[in-house]
Amino acid sequence: MEVIKENYIEGSKTDMKENNNQRNIENKTERIKELVELLNKAGKAYYQEAREIMSNKEYDELYDELSSLEKETGMVLSNSPTVNVGYEVLSSLPKVNHEAPMLSLDKTKSVDELSSFLKDREGILSWKLDGLTVVLTYENGTLIQAVTRGNGEVGELITNNAKVFVNIPINIPFKEQLIIRGEAVIKYSDFEKINNTIDEESLKYKNPRNLCSGSVRQLNNKITAERNVHFFAFTLVKAGGDEVYLGTIDKQFEFLKEQGFSVVEHKKVTKDTVADNVSYFAKAIETFDVPSDGLVLMFNDIEYGKTLGRTAKFPRNGIAFKWKDETAKTILKEIEWSPSRTGLINPVAIFNPVELEGTTVSRASVHNISIVEGLKLGIGDEIEVYKANMIIPQISENHTKSGNLIIPDKCPACGGATEIRSINDVKSLYCTNPECVAKHVKKFTHFVSRDALNIEGLSEETLEKFIDHGFIHSYRDIFHLDDHEETIVNMAGFGRKSYDNLVAAVEKSRNVILPKLIYSLGILNIGLANAKVICKEFDYDIEKTVNATMEQLMEIDGIGDVIAESFVDYFRNTKNREEFEILLKELKIEAVEETNTESPIAGKTFVVTGSVEKFQNRKELQAFIESRGGKVTGSVTSKTDYLINNDTTSNSSKNKKAKELGIDIISEDMFMELLGE
Question: Is residue 230 part of a domain?
């Protein structure tokens, strides 16, 4: 009995010592994070805002404390003021094969199914973050590789970018090989800040996931650093020679936190407690700053999870939980029949507005006639609607089922005959008129685009609505939308302010330079650069330009027989010419501003290829060159003076062509030196 007692006491001492050590490590880790945040705030205040929030003495003392803790623990965060991660520009992201395929989990929306999945086992329930999965590899305590998930088998090497994630450790205490998986994310608060810096609505980012994906995969990691990307670890793949390190997921999370990683928030659960914890996460997501599209439930015992193997598609050691769709009852007011570019006429349900997932919804696509008939839809029916995957409004049920809906026999856009076609047992409505204006919506989308007439507020979706209502049949109609003022003001998604802004944008677009007008017509093979070259050749004279012959056009540098033929054929077409003449009556053609003829690049011809760094995109660089008297063409010819490519040594086709012709290949830096700027 005494031996047992002594062993128990000794074991308790050991456990207490281990717990004390762990708490000590956690305290030091948290102190490092606290010091990094505090010192970075002080540095920003001093260097960027010209104010002090602490004395130099206090800063130095805290800096020394941080440096000492980093040496003691072996943990250094990427944003620590003690390190300076250099910026670097790459020409491309190399592809890397994963050691083992990265599989997706099976999904459910049922809490009961989560409980059944666990049976009598313990599980770990955590956020399913909505960003970009990244695999990190450390050797001898240093980050040596970061790879995106890619297609699960092959990812892209982003080590350069991972080193500037906000909260990633560059160095860790663990000195053997360490491989982990986690999610790179951009928080909603940072997403909104970035979008608030962008004035033009069409250029704003759609959601944090898309912004994160683009940020993580930048060739210039300075851009990545500016985007405030965070990393949350969720799987320890390998530690040293042990693939199942520490035995359970919760112990792995504690280990990863000791190394300085931020780990995904998680809860230990059983079949009896999983429902309460799902409720906790469901409430937390209302104010959660990190994008999440559900939860993940994994067996806590890692070895047990591995013994379960996998199905043809999914591993059996875990399951993903998708939030159950919120539904609402409402009344169907009408069906809007929406013709598309393919001739397909889609039914769209219009109903009394309801609140779903935090937004007001009043429309939902019904997709086809088969669904209309299956739901037995009729005007005035009580229907139930939801957002599929919390995004796309859909009708889930029709409680009335009157079935009184009349299928139109005429296309709402052109008045042509309609017919119901059955393809793969799915019935859909089609317009039979080959000249239906709805089939040419891309033509109008191009006409109002930024590089053409630049009419803000006329998105493709809005154009489709206007076409569906019969407002637009030709270019001229866009300038007379005020004929339909009352209808537009009362359309879903519009209102007085939106209408007034749209009319103002239309009026502003009446003043246009000839190259943009020519480009707006959507002539095959005629981009904005070609349109500028052609118009300049004919001194911006409309008559001379549109009546140009093949021979005249082919004398222009960069204009070959294909482009010349497209241009001539367009204006030879009687219908095109008539529409152009009618359009001219709505416009005022402005004079093109004279370019800087004294610039060192005046009269020089450039071709731009590859990614750019000093300009937002290649179009901005092109505009910059033209503003200084230069000319930009799309292909390298004997008349090209310079090829701008930041990867001057690449073996791209343009580089090869330039080398063959003895044309200088210059980077942006060399280009700016050429300008003396």
Answer: yes
Active-site residue, from 109, 128, 324, 442:
128
488, with CB counted inside 10 A (0-12, 13-18, 19+), is buried
On whether both 101 and 209 belong to a single domain, the answer is yes
Q: Is the residue at 78 inside a domain?
A: no
Is 128 a residue of the active site? yes
Do 278 and 404 lie in a common domain? no
Domain that holds residue 254: 95-321
What pLDDT band is residue 104 in, cutting at 50, 70 and 90? Answer: confident
Domain end point (choices 406, 431, 456):
431
Q: Write the pLDDT tens digit of every residue in 78-98.
A: 778 877 555 555 546 778 887
Residue 90 lies in a domain: no
Query: Residue 343: what residue type?
Result: G
For residue 579, the Cα-to-chain-centroid distance in whole angstroms is 38
Cα 195–chain centre separation: 12
52 — alpha (psi -120 to 50), left (phi > 0) or beta?
beta
Q: What angle do CA 284, 288, 293 make, to 5 degrees?
A: 90
**Nearest CA-CA partner of 478 in 444, 433, 454, 520:** 444
CB count within 10 Å of CB 72 equals 11
Which uninterrupted H or E stretch holds 336?
A: strand 327-339
* Rounded-to-integer distance, Cα 641 and Cα 54, Å: 56
Polymer length of the chain: 677
Burial of residue 611, with CB atoms counted within 10 A of its CB: 0-12 exposed, 13-18 middle, 19 or more buried: middle
For position 374, which CATH number holds? 2.40.50.140
Residues 269 and 302 in one domain: yes
At position 474, the amino acid (one-letter code) is S
Q: What region, left, alpha or beta, does residue 74 occupy, with left being phi > 0 and alpha being psi -120 to 50 degrees? A: left
For residue 455, which of 498, 512, 508 has the smallest C-alpha distance? 508
- The amino acid at residue 350 is I
- Do 283 and 314 lie in one domain? The reply is yes
The beta-strand segments (E) located in 71-148 are: 76-77, 95-97, 107-108, 123-129, 132-139, 142-148
User: In angstroms, what CA-CA distances link 130 with 187, 209, 290, 322, 387?
Assistant: 10, 6, 8, 12, 18
CA gap 162, 112 in Å, rounded = 39
For 187-198, write each residue's pLDDT tens digit: 989 988 888 777
Q: Residues 278, 411: one domain?
A: no
* Local structure of 386: helix, strand or coil: strand
Position 567 scores a pLDDT of 94
Q: What is the DSSP letter of 406?
A: P
**How high does pLDDT run on average in the chain?**
84
Residues 167 and 47 in one domain: no
In a domain, 670, yes or no: yes
Calculate the CA 591 to chain-centre distance: 38
Q: Is the dihedral of CA 375, 380, 382, 385 positive or negative?
A: positive
Helices (H), 332-419: 369-375
Q: Are 311 and 229 contained in the same domain?
A: yes
Q: Considering only CA atoms, which of 416, 391, 509 is closest in space to residue 454?
A: 509
Boundary-marking domain end, from 294, 321, 348:
321
> 287 and 154: one domain?
yes
28: domain CATH number? Answer: 1.10.287
Judged by average pLDDT, the poorest of 171-180, 194-203, 440-449, 564-573 is 194-203
What CATH number corresponds to the domain at position 476? 1.10.150.20
